[in-house]
Amino acid sequence: MTNQSLMIANYINHAFIESQLERADSYNSQLCVVKFELKFDPKEGDRFKEIVSFMYSFLGYTPIVYEGGEHFLIFIHESKLHNVVMTIKNMTMSVKIKYGLNVHNIGITAYDQSDDKNELIGRVHKFFMKSKINKEIDIYYGTKFFEYSHTGNFENIRSIITQEPMLNLYGFYKEAPLMSKVEIIDFNSGIMNVKAHKEYLLFFKKQEFIYIEHVMIPDIMRAEITKINFDNGEIELDNLKFLDNSPVHRKNVRVTPHRPIQATVEFESEFYMDGLIADISKNSILLTTQLSKIEEIQAKGLQTKSFELKFHLDSQDNSASINVRAMIYKTFGNQIVLNIYPSSEMENEIIDYIAMCQNLLLLEVKGTFVH
């Protein structure tokens, strides 16, 4: 490639990056940047092309920008940092399952409106390098205000709370995470005091742990409830710990169907097996099926193959036919965990169904946990 060609490619990349920031500013929307490393071997060019093509498809055909060397950038719009982290984790897991390739050294950050191009790219590069240095962390992520390495820094949390005093508290009811918005009224020496709606206080009291989500912090926190004031709705939280993965992870809210859902699985366009959906999240399904079929999958080496999963979701006002590509993540007994890859339209149907199930549980909670 000539110097002029390199210069043109460089200008085009810079123009693309600046346009991504302009789009986020114009629509006041979320934007996250991902930087990762993917080694290229000229002898395996076709395999490299197939892997990148799979990534494009997995990310809904979001552009992957070649930065130079073995480094690539992805700009993901309309998605919070927490969701992007899970999307990239699921993508790398799928690449590992399908191609036997481990994608390490990944940095992810969220765009702040005070960022310029250099600040944003500099920050995602910093997180990428920290992932590269720390061999135990495949994905290093954070915001302008908070990063993975600050997980024990309560002064960092204090500065964030000053900017945004609201957060979400999660407890569990029938294995589903239920959320209540609360206001932080005090934070001192690692102890947080919040004010919650009184109808949920008895529900929170029955929780072994409570989980905390803050919009400016990329990790879920877990805490113990040490005191509840039923008169004024105040809850004291202590022993805060950060969790890279948690039962209430923002993208993997999981519910049990409110009534049985029959599903069929096809392989190479032919019926393969059927079963009942035991629980459902935005990107995975737990399917109970015939033990003989699971044993057959293992015997035939189909664990890395792609299947087609079909089922119906019936809500109070709607019935939707869902047809998604699925890959096996794990099998145990007569159950299979399937990673699913829905279209945007079907993803929205699944999200709406999960929200409906959570709302039904919230109504049940309000009726069950009363004074």
Task: Please tell me about this protein's structure.
The chain has 371 residues and is an alpha+beta fold. It is built from 8 helices and 17 strands. The protein has helices at residues 3-27, 45-58, 81-99, 117-133, 154-163, 201-205, 291-300, 344-368, and strands at residues 31-37, 64-68, 71-77, 106-110, 139-142, 166-173, 176-188, 191-195, 210-213, 220-229, 234-243, 262-267, 270-280, 284-289, 306-314, 319-332, 335-341. It is globular and about 75 Å long. The mean pLDDT is 86.
Topology (elements, then pairings):
Elements: H1 3-27, E1 31-37, H2 45-58, E2 64-68, E3 71-77, H3 81-99, E4 106-110, H4 117-133, E5 139-142, H5 154-163, E6 166-173, E7 176-188, E8 191-195, H6 201-205, E9 210-213, E10 220-229, E11 234-243, E12 262-267, E13 270-280, E14 284-289, H7 291-300, E15 306-314, E16 319-332, E17 335-341, H8 344-368
Parallel strand pairs: 4-5
Antiparallel strand pairs: 1-3, 1-4, 2-3, 6-7, 6-9, 7-8, 8-11, 9-10, 10-11, 12-13, 12-15, 13-14, 14-17, 15-16, 16-17
Task: Please give a handful of descriptors for the protein shown.
single chain, 371 residues, alpha+beta, six-stranded antiparallel beta barrel, six-stranded antiparallel barrel, 8 helices, 17 strands, 34% helix, 35% strand, globular
In brief:
The chain has 8 helices and 17 strands.
Number of DSSP helical runs = 8
Class by alpha and beta content: alpha+beta
Widest β-sheet, arrangement of strands: 6-7-8-11-10-9
SSE string: HEHEEHEHEHEEEHEEEEEEHEEEH
Average of per-residue pLDDT values: 86
